[in-house]
Specification:
Oligomer: single chain
Number of strands: 0
Number of helices: 2
Distance between the termini: 68 Å
Structural class: mainly alpha
Helix content: over 70%
Order of helices and strands: HH
Length: 55
């Protein structure tokens, strides 16, 4: 089976575009992601504190 040498270049360009788009999305929504993680951590801390008090 023959694969054209330019196929690798096309695949690399597509992969690079996906990585750039993904990192751009992460940068745009980084504040929302950090706030969401902080909320989850606070929620788990409160649950742990309640379990400690119940014992």
């Amino acid at each position: 089976m023959y694969i054209d040498p330019n196929t690798g270049g096309i695949l690399f360009q597509a992969l690079a575009a996906v990585l750039v788009a993904g990192s751009g999305i992460l940068m745009v929504f980084s504040r929302n992601i950090r706030e969401g993680i902080a909320k989850l951590r606070r929620k788990f801390r409160k649950e742990d504190e309640q379990e400690q008090q119940d014992k």
